[in-house]
Write a structure and sequence with these properties.
This protein is mainly α. Helix content is 62%, strand content 4%.
Length: 434
């Protein structure tokens, strides 16, 4: 019986060779080079795991290092302090004061901060973090890091049936992903970008399998990032996934009701009144970290600049129109092609998107692998390396990673709108319509 396997073109540099999918009879035995790559990849992953354990044990060494007080080395957990404090406020039964700046600062008083990190997520996110708020900060950070790592691993597991390449190159792919700058920064810095990756992959896999109800639940759970969930709901509407829309609305309604039970029926308006000013201030303070089209141009000029608003909103509108066109034509564009475009596009159109949310580029990369049997490895190497440009963001006041995202969206759109003959080699079965 023939077995699907992956091979690197013989006689070529493995970094420049295409990743291909071929068929061979009998047992497929990895070459010495493949075994070495797998061993190195596992060693990298082990080293990352040990680094997190040591950092958590020492209480420092992972995260951002600005304004630390009374600690040696960088402060543990980066942005996790905001999530931990919000969870502890809920755990203490004080959810009514969740968005009170003084209350948040008091909850973070012993976490080595100069001031505090504002928590602006919807109340149900703080409710989800409440169990962590009952733990010691170091233990809570370690548990959160494990959970976010698990979320990404689950995303990879969900993608596996759609990407046969993973069966042979799982360890190198995992090593590349976990050292991808936006993802490793998000996980090490206590952010939840890995959860965004998981939910988008869950939507993809559910639609791929024809399980629209589950896809809708994933969209509903995505409401913890409204700037991503709402566009995805609109795209499902354009592609006429009615059952998915129905289950998404039910899930969102259930989330609203659960929050209303804790914060009152008017929680939505009061929440926005309280966090709206923070979002505006954060757009200025974190301008150098923004990768949305609006945030990037405001970082170049200023938040009050009319030119920045025109350029940012104009580019976002162009992305929206492009996504609408792609998703309104499921008979022409495959599910993977539409998901890949959405993974990049929703980051660009969001008014508030930080650099670690570029982790969603990995979903676009996975979509490309699912669509092609002959993708140049150098393409993924270039994407991995391009993410490192963010390190110069503070020195120039804006992140070039936003330009990478814009270029990726343009390149993806150009690629999938070309005639099939001009694309990478395609597997015949990928034209599934969902």
């Amino acid at each position: 019986m023939e077995k699907l396997s992956t091979r690197v073109g013989e006689g070529t540099d493995s970094l420049a060779a295409p990743l291909t999918l071929s068929r061979s009879a009998g047992k497929d035995v990895p070459s010495r080079g493949e075994e070495l790559i797998n061993k190195i990849s596992r060693a990298v992953l082990l080293a990352l795991g040990l680094a997190v354990l040591l950092a958590a044990a020492a209480g420092s060494g992972v995260g951002q290092s600005a304004n630390d007080v009374g600690q040696e080395g960088p402060r543990l957990g980066g942005d996790f302090a905001a999530f931990y404090a919000a969870g502890s406020i809920v755990w203490d039964g004080d959810i009514a004061s969740l968005y009170d700046p003084a209350r948040q600062e008091a909850a973070q008083a012993d976490l080595g901060l100069d001031g505090y990190l504002a928590f602006a997520y919807p109340p149900h996110v703080a409710m989800a973090y409440a169990p962590l708020g009952a733990l010691n900060f170091q233990l809570a950070y370690l548990v959160h890091t494990i959970l976010m790592t698990g979320a990404f691993l689950l995303a990879v597991h969900l993608m596996a049936p759609m990407i046969p390449l993973l069966s042979r190159w799982r360890w190198p792919i995992l090593a590349a992903c976990f050292t991808f700058f936006p993802l490793i920064t998000a996980i090490g810095g206590g952010q939840n970008a890995a959860l965004s990756v998981l939910l988008l992959v869950a939507i993809w896999r559910s639609l791929h399998d024809g399980r629209e109800t589950l896809a809708g639940v994933a969209v509903g759970l995505f409401i913890f990032r409204p700037q991503y969930a709402i566009p995805m709901l609109g795209l499902l509407f354009l592609s006429k996934h009615w059952r998915a829309i129905g289950s998404a609305v039910v899930t969102i309604a259930a989330t609203w009701a659960a929050t209303a039970a804790m914060r009152g029926a008017g929680w939505l308006s009061s929440w926005w009144e309280q966090v709206g000013p923070f979002v505006e201030r954060d757009a200025e303070v974190n301008a150098a970290n923004s990768i949305s089209s609006l945030g990037f141009f405001q970082a170049i000029w200023s938040p009050e600049s009319l030119a920045a608003r025109v350029a940012g909103v104009g580019l976002a509108a162009l992305v929206v129109v492009t996504l609408m066109y792609l998703w309104a034509k499921p008979e022409r564009f495959t599910l993977a092609e539409r998901i890949g475009a959405a993974a990049i596009g929703i980051v660009l159109i969001s008014p508030h998107t930080m650099f670690y949310d570029a982790s969603l580029l990995l979903v676009a990369g996975a979509a490309l692998l699912s669509e092609s049997t002959n993708v140049p490895t150098r393409l993924f190497t270039a994407m991995w390396a391009a993410a490192l440009v963010h390190v110069v963001a503070d020195s120039i006041g804006a992140t070039p990673l936003a330009i990478v995202m814009m270029g990726a969206f343009a390149a993806w759109t150009w690629h999938i709108t070309q005639p099939s003959a001009s694309r990478f080699d395609r597997r015949g079965h990928t034209k599934e319509l969902a």
